[in-house]
Amino acid sequence: MTVVVARTTRDVITVTGPEAVTWLQGQLSQDISRLAPGEAALTFVLAPQGKVDGWGRIQRITDDSVRIDVDPGAGAAWMTRLNRFKLRTKADLDLATDVPAVAVRGSAPEAGLPAGWPGTVGVDYLEAGGEVVDALVAEGATEIDADALEGLRIRAGFPRWGAEVDAETIPATVGQWAIVAAVSFTKGCYTGQELVARIDSRGGNVPRRLAAIVVDGPPPAVGAEVTVDGAVVGTVTSSAPDPVAGGSVALAFIARAAEVPSVAEIGGQGVGIVALPLLDSD
């Protein structure tokens, strides 16, 4: 993959205090205690029933401080969820919205935070902007716009809050890779653990799973129904022009009974349902 770079933003929650890490260890699916200062990993924060209250990346800053960066607009939901369970805890929360960031895909410089996109090498720089972009372009990277970055995200099958992940999402539906990357089964109890553990013990079987939709044409509308032989098998959650193969790509949760890959239709147009991630060679 050609090295590409894009300007974007993130919401960032900073948690500091003598009980910050201990408290978050009981709230998040990730094992924070294993992270050394500077290290980062993906994580869920769950409702007591096990559905997703938040999805993001947590970085250990010091022994008693961390920062969690999440999709733009998702920070408020994280703050609401964390504050609801922060009773008599010696930890302070701060939210910064629209923090400038730079996404790099196709290369993984050590200084960046691992993007974690399946099938894709990449990092993100927080609190970074034009100077980082200019430096990377001078080294041979190609700057892309937000639509192209969205297309790459869809090809990777990396979920976005408000699209593939919301308060009705069961973690396993976005893919087993997310469970491996964001969930610890050894650290002890955390809120919402029971459902995640139960589904994992049953082989990760869920009623629907995330798949790619390949379209020879413009992006389908979010919310459009995906049908196979006239039966609805899924609904489009995200779509964008495909910056790699042309045409467009989309994500949809596909019913377990539907075969992947298979031929389908959206609004009478023929499309393909394909397993994730879509690699450059596909």
Could you please say which CATH topology of the largest domain applies here? Gyrase A, domain 2
Radius of gyration: 19 Å
State the end-to-end distance.
Answer: 12 Å
Shape-level CATH architecture of the largest domain: 2-Layer Sandwich
Helix content: 10-25%
Task: Report the uncertain regions.
Answer: none
In this structure, how is the largest beta sheet organized?
8 strands, mixed
Counting DSSP E segments of at least 2 residues, the number of strands comes to 14
Beta fraction: 35-45%
Shape: globular
Q: What is the CATH homology-level superfamily of the largest domain? A: Probable tRNA modification gtpase trme, domain 1
Q: What class would the helix/strand composition place it in? A: alpha+beta
CATH classification, class level of the largest domain: Alpha Beta
Rounded average pLDDT: 96
